[in-house]
Design brief:
Strand order of the largest sheet: 9-10-11-14-16
CATH superfamily of the largest domain: Trimethylamine methyltransferase-like
Distance between the termini: 18 Å
CATH class of the largest domain: Alpha Beta
Mean pLDDT: 90
Shape: globular
Number of helices: 18
Low-confidence stretches: 1-24
CATH topology of the largest domain: TIM Barrel
Number of domains: 2
Number of strands: 22
């Protein structure tokens, strides 16, 4: 092992990891545009789709559940029985914790908490200095994970790009997981193309965790599984991936991607109804396999620009659609994820800023537990930018600050403070509570500027983007220490026949 992969102790990881930030948790579900009556009406539509319209193509491992109550065959389609749906929604495991490698921090999805992270699987990365996109490489994934590991307001790392330099899908999936786990301590989300990759991936996780039981208790990796081909067709191979994930104790992100006006109805209500039904089918499948399986539903209806057929991820319509989906997941009390921050801009500019702010804030306020693609993504999820990771981290910090809980009972103390300040003919800047709360109640940006016009004219080259680039360079120029020990890395390379030096040595 070369020096670029030196180990650090578990204690050092916990100390240095910025995921201990005071701002990481916020409670959503404050934005409720749907009335309880409207939610009930959408639920009735969802139930009708699941129990009467049904799905095309049933995976073979589900055939044993075909009877007159569980999975019912109707007109060559497969429907879920109403009794099954009711039982699953009442008894499924919604007390889900997603851990980090050090096991000291975790994402608690059981109480409506909101967490931001990455995602996207873009095939391109932006070289901002040259203003060109190029194919994304293994070294880019390493750098992305290193950067996210140091950003305070991002709680998980879902692979934001694909390794175009590794042709074999199985090897690419193994490399992706190992690179991510080596470069960040935060919870890792990835995906696999073939169900046969799940077992070796689980073995990697067991090795890192110190055994199968240890990983099952504190899973630090989960799998994004797009198991539906909209409309209402189960993807046989992806469902096999789901089955293997449940078998080996890997949390499942049951994701659904329909496009309004293309693969789901053009109306927002129809699209939401279909997407929720498709997402719930993933929960039902996993619950049938194991009632204690860890499942996070990802209903992700995307908006189509009907003029071009392309995605309009930064639109107001997208923000509204995502909001309604999150509200329905809260209606069912289901841990869920959403996509937000999918800007259509090709560079981190004003367009990217307002599109990301709109969708991320709306999704967070609506109560999505895990907001993927909240950082780094551009060009309708086709491109990723390292500079955007830094910029979007500050955006997410501002949104988290806007969602802090308030302590109304403290008002009694404030009233006394007001009285004392007035009696002394002073101001609040010198009060002990002001100094105390200065570091706890306020978020101070590192890249954004708060300068007077006079100071700005003296330092006008120090734009937010330039500051972000400085912060990015500071992270990437620092000594890289793997979160995996040299011994574990060596065993992974030997057992799974991969060569990480090829990745780490890329220029």
């Amino acid at each position: 092992m070369s020096r670029r992969r030196g180990s650090r102790s578990r204690g050092a990881q916990a100390t240095n990891n910025s995921n201990n930030s005071k701002n990481l948790r916020a409670y959503g579900n404050r934005l409720n545009t749907l009335s309880e009556k409207e939610k009930a009406e959408i639920n009735a539509g969802v139930q009708h789709i699941l129990s009467e319209i049904g799905f095309e193509q049933l995976p073979k491992f589900l055939e044993c559940f075909v009877d007159n109550k569980t999975i019912i065959k109707k007109n060559n389609r497969f429907c879920f029985g109403l009794e099954l749906i009711d039982e699953c929604l009442k008894s499924f495991n919604n007390n889900i914790l997603l851990h980090q490698q050090n096991r000291e921090n975790y994402l608690d999805l059981s109480k409506g908490n909101v967490y931001f992270g990455t995602g996207g699987a873009a095939p391109l990365i932006l070289d901002y200095e040259r203003k060109v996109y190029r194919p994304s490489l293994g070294k880019d994934l390493l750098n992305a994970a290193r950067v996210v590991d140091r950003l305070d307001n991002l709680s998980f790392f879902s692979r934001p790009l694909v390794l175009t330099d590794i042709a074999d899908p199985h090897l690419m999936d193994i490399y992706t997981a190992v690179i991510s786990l080596s470069a960040t301590n935060k919870h890792v989300m990835t995906s696999v193309a073939n169900h046969k990759t799940v077992k070796p991936l689980a073995e990697v996780c067991y090795l890192i965790a110190g055994g199968e039981d240890a990983f099952r208790r504190s899973p630090f990796l989960s799998l994004n599984i797009n198991f539906i081909i909209p409309p209402l067709r189960l993807d046989a191979e992806a469902c096999e991936v789901m089955r293997e994930s449940v078998k080996y104790g890997i949390p499942v992100m049951a994701n659904v991607f329909g496009q309004r006006g293309a693969s789901s109805p053009v109306s927002i209500v129809g699209s939401v109804c279909q997407t929720v039904a498709e997402a719930l089918s993933g929960l039902l499948i996993c619950w049938l396999l194991d009632p204690d399986s860890k499942v996070i539903c990802g209903p992700r209806a995307m908006v189509t620009d009907l003029r071009t057929g392309g995605m309009a991820g930064g639109s107001g319509e997208q923000a509204q659609t995502t909001s309604l989906l999150s509200q329905m997941m809260h209606y069912y009390k289901i841990p869920n994820s959403s996509i937000a921050g999918a800007s259509d801009s090709n560079i981190p500019d004003y367009q990217a800023g307002y599109e990301k702010a709109l969708s991320i804030a709306t999704s967070a306020q609506s109560g999505a537990n895990l907001i993927t693609q909240a950082s780094g993504m551009l060009s309708g999820l086709m491109g990723v930018s390292l500079e955007s990771f830094v910029l979007d981290n500050e955006l997410c910090g501002s949104i988290l600050s806007s969602m802090r809980s308030i302590d109304v009972p403290v008002l009694t103390n404030d009233l006394e403070s007001i009285k004392q300040v007035i009696e002394r003919d002073k101001h609040f800047l010198g009060e002990s509570d002001t100094l105390k709360r200065m570091s706890t109640d306020f978020d101070y940006p590192k890249s954004a500027k708060r300068l007077s016009p006079e100071l700005w004219m003296k330092e006008k080259d120090n734009t937010m983007l330039n500051e972000a680039r400085k912060n990015l360079e500071n992270i990437l120029s620092s000594n890289f220490q793997s979160h995996l020990s040299p011994e574990i890395l060596k065993k992974i390379e030997t057992d799974f026949e991969i060569n990480l030096d090829e990745i780490y040595g890329q220029k």
